[in-house]
Write a structure and sequence with these properties.
Protein name: Mitochondrial fission protein ELM1-like
Largest sheet: 7 strands, mixed
Region (Disordered): 1-21
Organism: Abrus precatorius
GO cellular component, one term: mitochondrial outer membrane
């Protein structure tokens, strides 16, 4: 079983008078839900999905947090010498095929917490994201179904009814069913990668999104515009923000992307008032070196040096257009939530479900490929992606169907 580290929730207010009705019932026929548990996997992008959903639901300041780390106990003690990623994959398969070998100590702790505090504090909303959290979240649902509402983000590759709700990007769910994808997967693995049932058969259980869930929405952008006013208010317009991420196994690139990206950016400088460039922590050094060499001395260009404060939210609020490398579904989804022009660089280097993601965005007119021939002053737009808010609305509906209501 994976080890989970708790961060305790602040004590909720007690009833105003002795003998009064507990405030979990102070909403007519509804039971109030006012606390949440995030099950993280150590990857910022996955945990950002959970936190973003909670923020839109209004529960961001009232939650417990447990992080899945290296599995321990039982057969896992014999696997400690393996690389962490391989260890987790073996443990995941064990939890599917031989679930009784899983140590349920941490799960039981969460289940007991939900049961024992239900009368005083109400039900518990459990939000998990990523493959490593699946066995934990599904076990909590199975053992405390009357006291919790479990949301699993990203396709769990299990029967969806093991959760109260599954929120999955469209490309994550459907691409494994395409002929192109089937050719890439060995036949004996297909049942574990492909969906086991159509989402339509699950009713409230399943929510399909176009992009990833995140923490960017109208109120957060409005707040960021105020916070970053002094930095960006006098920047020459139009402002082009460029985010260069790290390559992944399904979107590989290095200097072969850095050189054409630098050339394309130089080509559009004439239509820009200013350009701000940021790298992720794991952007290849060869790529960042090329960008700095080619653009670092240009008076129109500012390259963030990685020092705090991180201007990311300020960039989203104040940019007039974006150029984003194709590897990051989360970053692209955030940029597309602004409704501003988004150009993608390097999509042709991607494969697997990334290809379906980029195709869906292009077909909806949300993104365009970045070629270097663009006029950045051209202001094209589209209905902003609103996946997190849409998912939050479905959570509200599902809770209401159970007679539960969020206390914001």
């Amino acid at each position: 079983m994976k080890s989970l580290k708790p961060i305790q929730l602040p004590e909720p207010p007690s009833p105003t008078a002795a003998g009064a009705t507990p405030d979990i019932f102070q909403s007519g026929a509804h039971t109030l839900l006012r606390r949440a548990l995030v099950i993280g996997n150590g990857f910022p992008s996955s945990e950002n999905h959970c936190i973003g959903l909670l923020r839109v639901l209004g529960l961001s300041h009232f939650h417990l947090f447990y992080r899945v780390t290296r599995p321990k106990g039982g057969i896992n003690d014999w696997l400690q010498w393996l690389p962490l990623s391989l260890h987790k994959k073996i443990h995941y398969l064990i939890s599917i095929f031989v679930p009784f070998l899983t140590n349920l100590t941490d799960v039981n702790h969460i289940v007991n917490l939900a049961r024992q505090t239900y009368e005083k504090e109400g039900p518990l909303l459990v939000v998990a994201s990523g493959r490593d959290t699946v066995s934990v979240a599904s076990s909590i649902k199975r053992l405390a179904s009357d006291h919790v509402f479990v949301v699993q983000i990203q396709h769990p590759r299990l029967h969806l009814n093991r959760f109260d709700m599954v929120i999955t990007p469209h490309h994550d769910y459907y691409y494994p069913l395409t002929p192109e994808a089937q050719k890439q997967v060995p036949k004996f693995l297909r049942r574990w990668i492909s969906p086991r049932e159509p989402p339509e058969s699950c009713g409230m259980y399943h929510v399909l999104t176009l992009g990833a869930l995140h923490q960017i929405y109208f109120a957060s952008l409005r707040s960021a515009a105020i916070t970053w006013h002094d930095v960006f208010a006098h920047v020459p317009r139009p402002l082009l923000v460029v985010h260069i991420g790290r390559p992944t196994k399904n979107c590989r690139y290095g200097a072969d992307l850095g050189k054409p990206l630098a050339t394309s950016l130089l080509s559009v400088l004439g239509s820009c008032g200013s350009v701000r460039i940021s790298f992720s922590e794991r952007t290849p050094q060869k790529v960042s070196n090329i960008i700095v060499k080619e653009l670092g001395n240009n008076p129109k260009v500012y390259i963030w040096d990685g020092q705090e404060p991180n201007p990311h939210i300020g960039h989203l609020a104040w940019a007039d257009a974006f150029v984003v490398t194709a590897n990051s579904v989360s970053m692209i989804s955030e940029a597309c939530s602004t409704g501003k022009p988004v150009y993608i660089m390097g999509a042709e280097r991607c494969r697997w479900k990334f290809t379906e993601f980029h195709k869906s965005l292009r077909e909806r007119g949300v993104v365009r490929p970045f070629t270097g021939s663009e006029d950045i002053s051209e202001n094209w737009s589209y209905p902003p992606l609103n996946d997190t808010a849409d998912a939050a609305k479905r959570v509200h509906e599902a809770l209401a169907a159970r007679g539960w209501k969020l206390k914001i």
